[in-house]
Specification:
- This protein is α/β, with parallel strands linked by helices and 372 residues long.
- Strands 4, 5, 6, 7, 8, 9, 10, 11 and 12 form a nine-stranded mixed sheet that branches. Strands 1-2-3 form a three-stranded mixed sheet, sandwiched between helices.
- It has two domains: 76 residues, GMP Synthetase, Chain A, domain 3 (2-Layer Sandwich); 248 residues, P-loop containing nucleotide triphosphate hydrolases (Rossmann fold).
- The relative contact order is 0.14.
- It is 34% helix and 20% strand.
- The structure holds adenosine-5'-triphosphate.
- It comes from Microvirga brassicacearum.
Length: 372
Amino acid sequence: MTVTRERVMQALAEVAVDAGGATLADSGRLSEVLVDESGRVMFSIFIDPPEAPVMENVRLAAEKAVRAIAGVTGVFATLTAEREGGTTAPATPPPPRPHAPKQPKTQRIPGVGHVIAVASGKGGVGKSTTAVNLALGLHSLGLRVGLLDADIYGPSVPKLLGIHGKPKLLEGRILEPMEAYGLKVMSIGFLVDEEAAMIWRGPMVMSAITQMLREVAWGDLDVLVVDMPPGTGDAQLTMAQATPLAGAIIVSTPQDLALIDARRGVSMFRRVEIPILGIVENMATFICPHCGTASDIFGHGGARHEAERLGVPFLGEVPLTMSIRESSDAGRPVVALEPDSPHAAIYKSMAQQVQTALAGAGTRAAPRIVIE
Ligand SMILES: Nc1ncnc2c1ncn2[C@@H]1O[C@H](COP(=O)(O)OP(=O)(O)OP(=O)(O)O)[C@@H](O)[C@H]1O
């Protein structure tokens, strides 16, 4: 049975918000309501932070009302203090749900040793390719590794790892991660179609990322690698707030313009006190598949200089090669398929450096974010 947004709104029109008779549907507190093709319903309820204890009851009532609709397979309802448009920072985390572990959402994810973000200031620079191969590099070092594709606006991890299908819903609202090449994997791409995700606003992005971090049965992991959405906006700040990140890796191509964006990325993470584990230069040099000649199409060495200038580690440079593009896009990542190739060696060396950096880092408390 198809669930419509109208049917959901009808149910929410039965949920009282206050004694004055206002309902959730007409209270002006409701974000966009999204329904995906498998009958999952997602929305946020705007609150002022002091209202959180009272509004948690409203959230529970809303969840119950929507769950009762025939055809609804899951309800993701969250309280948020962030208005669409993003002018107000989420001030106080919502109170824990009865079935959630009793801890603020800024605490570590149980069983997960370190969470690291792979980010880029701009799109299309090879961030996801780097995240996938770095995760595989860490796995090749004997670590238990998860990969979370939080790139709401272009989830490409399912494709890069050749994963099809949907994750299983375990008890409650917990999802079982998918598995590929020894990695545990969750992607927003498994859950909603790309067009739906594209229209999400700040609070929806925040709730989706938080749920993928916390409502997935990750099990025991040494490292969870998060493929971030490109850019330096709300989603990145949300990520930083939602979990204690051990550090961030910034991927850039060598062009000046990409480097300006990379610099923004570095300064954003610094602003929220997340250590930069290093910068990666991707598509550094073009290796001709026919004659093997190297040409610096986008220039070369820019990211290394930038890293020096910013005082952050430089993790390595990955050439622009047909074999990386073809193997990535065919769901056969180079580190898994050709572990002894020179390209795999570059990613493994990055993984080694990251492992060393993580070994020296304790788990940090997540910073409080103030959006100016
Ligand atoms: N070193 C490389 N050599 C050749 N092709 C590459 C390399 N790195 C990435 N690519 C290709 O570039 C394209 C974009 O890569 P990828 O999806 O990893 O980028 P992204 O920064 O995550 O993009 P988006 O911002 O869209 O998520 C893909 O087709 C990928 O195969």
